[in-house]
Write a structure and sequence with these properties.
With about 600 residues, this protein is of the alpha/beta class. The chain is built from 22 helices and 14 strands. It catalyses: 6-phospho-D-gluconate = 2-dehydro-3-deoxy-6-phospho-D-gluconate + H2O.
Amino acid sequence: MTLHSSIDRVTDRIRERSRNTRDSYLKKIARAAEDGPRRAHLSCGNQAHAYAAMDDKDDMATTRKPNIGIVTAYNDMLSAHQPYERFPDLIRRAGHAAGATVQVAGGVPAMCDGVTQGRPGMELSLFSRDVIALAAGVALSHDCFDSALYLGVCDKIVPGLVIAAATFGHVPAVFIPAGPMPSGLPNDEKSKVRQQFAAGEVGRDALMAAEMASYHSPGTCTFYGTANSNQMLMEFMGLHLPGSSFVNPNTPLREALTVAGVERAAAITRLGNDYLPAGDVLDEKAFVNGIVGLMATGGSTNLVMHLPAMARAAGVLLDIEDFHDISESVPLMARVYPNGLADVNHFHAAGGLGYMIGQLLEAGLMHQDVKTINGTGMDGYTAEPRLDGERIRWEAGSTDTLNDRILRPVSDPFARTGGLKQLDGNLGRGVIKISAVAEERHVIEAKARIFSDQEQVKTAFRAGEFTEDTIVVVRFQGPRANGMPELHSLTPTLAVLQDRGLKVALVTDGRMSGASGKVPAAIHISPEASTGGPLARVRDGDLIRLDATMGTIDCLAEDFDTRKPVAFDPASSSEGMGREMFAAFRAVAGPATEGAGVVV
C-alpha cells in the first residue's frame, strides 16, 4: 500500500529538520561499535572484577558467548513492576539455553504517579525520567554487554530507558513488558465514585473501597493512561516482540514471551550475523509510527512531551506540529477508558495492537519498512503469539475486529482524527486532547480564574466560588517552576463543575495526562509562566478563548501584550520531599514543547 501523503510529508520534514543531528548521532554509534564486542577490550583485572560473582565466569572470560545486560526498574511498590522480581532468574535460564551469559547491569528508580498525585513528591516525577536515563547509563558504562534487556513499564520509566538505549545506541536493545493486571472494578465506576467523593456525596470509606477494587493485583493499571500508552509505543516502534504488550503477568504466555525476548537479545549482537544496534531501530520512521499509534489508540498526552525527548537522544528532532499533522490524518480506532468504557484487557481481546497495525499498514498510515527486534518490518507485528508447549509460535492475527464497540477499522473509526490538537495564540503554544471531550465543549470562551497550584483550585471549589462558566488557569506548573507535576487530581473537581452545567476548561503550563478524560484541558503551554511566559500576564476576570477547532488559545484583554508578567515565587516548591536536590534540574530543563529535557 502506498504511504499516505501526510505521513510521508511529516516524515520528510522530520528527516530534513534532523539531518545534521541524526548524521552526527549515527557517526557516534558507528565509532562506538567499530571495535567489536565490548568486554574483549577490558583488561584481565577489569574482567575479573566484572565476573567475580558469576557462576559462569569461565564462559564470560574465555568464550565468545554474548553477554546480555539487564537494566531493571523492579520494585514491589509499583504493581506494574512487581512481576519483574522473578524476571532475572528466568532471563538467566533462557540466556544460558540460548548460548549467552546474563548479568543484571543495574537498577533504575521507578515512581508511581498514582501514589504521588497531588502530593509534593509529584514534583520529582517528570525529572525521574532523566534520572532513570542517567542510572541506566551508569549501569551500561561498565562496557561489558553485547546487548541489553530493559525491564520497565510505567510513566517516566520507559521514556527514560529509551533515552538510555538511544544514547548507548551501538548496543542492541530489547524491551520486555510485564503486562496489565486483570480487570477489576470498571474504570467508569471508579471515576463516578471519585466525583461523588469530590462533591461530598460519599465518604472516604466508599472511595477507598472503589480504589482498592480497581487497583487490585500485580500488573499495569487497566485504564489507557501513560503506562499502557508506553507499552503500545514500544510495540509500534519495534522494541517489543509482536503481541507482547498486553499479556497479563504471571501467566505461561507472559513467561514464554520473556524467553523469546531473551533469545532475540542473544541473536542480534555484533557476535552474530543479525547485528541490530538500538540506534538503527530508533530512526525517524520509528518515531512517526509511534505517533501514529498514539493517535489511533487515543493515548496519553504525556507522550507528546516524552517522545521529543526520546527522539532527541537518537538525533531525531520532533515538534508538536508533527503530532498535530499526524493526528489530522490518523483516525481514532479504539475506545479504551477514559475514551470509552473498555479497559486494555478488553482492547487486547478485541484484536488489540496486531489488528490495529494491520489496518494502519493497509491504509498506508504507518511505515512498514522499518527495522525491528523481531527481524521483520512492521508487517510482522500483525501476528499473534500462541503457546506451542512452552515456546511461542506466531500465527496470523484477526483481520476483523472482535468487538466494534472497542476497536474499529480505519474505514469506520470512532472519529476521523486522533483528537490531538496543537494550540497557538497570544498565550503561547500547547496541545489539547479532545477525543473524549464532547463536541459542544471544543470551543470555550469564559472569564479566567488564576491559581498558582492545584490545591488553591480545590479550596475555591469547596468554598462554592465557581458559579459561572470559567477558564481555570493553573500557572507556574512548568518544568522550570516546580518540575511540571501531573494535575490529574483536578479531574474530579472540574468534572463535577461540568456535570453541574457549567462550561469549564483548564489552561496550564503543567501536565494533565491522557487519563484525564472529558474536561477540555490546554496543557504544556510554553513558554512557561515562571520564565515570563504569557500565562504570567493573565489576570482574574480576563476573557480567554480556547478554540480546539481552530487550534487557538488567546487572552482577549486589550492591554494583554503590554502587561508586566507576575514574578514566580519558588518558595512553595523548592524544598521538602527531595525537591531541594532537584534545583539543578529545574534550572536547566528545556521547554515542554521540546520534551522538558535535562540530559537531552
